[in-house]
Design brief:
Number of helices: 5
Largest sheet: 4 strands, antiparallel
Number of strands: 4
Distance between the termini: 14 Å
Radius of gyration: 19 Å
Strand content: 15-25%
Order of helices and strands: HHHEHEEHE
Helix content: 25-40%
Number of domains: 2
Strand order of the largest sheet: 2-3-1-4
CATH topology of the largest domain: Alpha-Beta Plaits
CATH superfamily of the largest domain: Lrp/AsnC effector binding domain/regulation of amino acid metabolism (RAM) domain
Length: 152
């Protein structure tokens, strides 16, 4: 576990849930943290390079935007997992893709604009070398949690 400075903790706490929608969001964070915008940008860059920040982005309510969601479970031959995962990651509607223990060993979420688009994408994935089986677990109701790690 890394030792974070007070500034790092302040920045990480703000990025997780309080990133302002403004032309210069890092300036707003800097004002709260009592430092310069450049310091915030430098720390964010260092935290990203260090692997502590994966990405900065927004969450949107996909259903309100006309998207259909599904959790997909794949049974993939062990040696083919990296290539199948890499192929899956090329689809813009894939938001998560992770390996798991068990017979269904590769899982991902897929959001598409139509059932036809979903069917096409899943057909392409089914045909990949190493894909033995596919389960399409349709979203019935979302139970979204907001995970934030408050650093003190």
């Amino acid at each position: 576990m890394a030792e974070f400075s007070a500034l790092d903790k302040s920045i990480l706490n703000e990025l997780q849930g309080n990133l302002p929608l403004s032309p210069r969001p890092f300036a707003a964070i800097a004002e709260k943290a009592g430092c310069s915008e450049e310091e915030v940008i430098d720390r964010v860059r260092a935290l990203k390079e260090g692997g502590y920040i994966r990405r900065i982005g927004v969450f949107f309510e996909s259903g309100h935007l006309g998207y259909h969601g599904a959790l997909i479970a794949l049974r993939v031959t062990e040696g083919c997992i990296p290539s199948v995962a890499q192929h899956i990651n090329r689809y813009p509607g894939v938001t998560h893709n992770y390996e798991r223990e068990g017979s269904y060993n590769l899982w991902f979420t897929l959001h598409t604009r139509s059932i036809e688009e979903e069917t096409q994408i899943l057909g392409e994935i089914r045909a990949l070398d190493g894909v033995e089986s596919l389960l399409n677990l349709k979203v019935k109701k979302k139970y979204k949690i907001n995970v934030q790690f408050k650093l003190k």
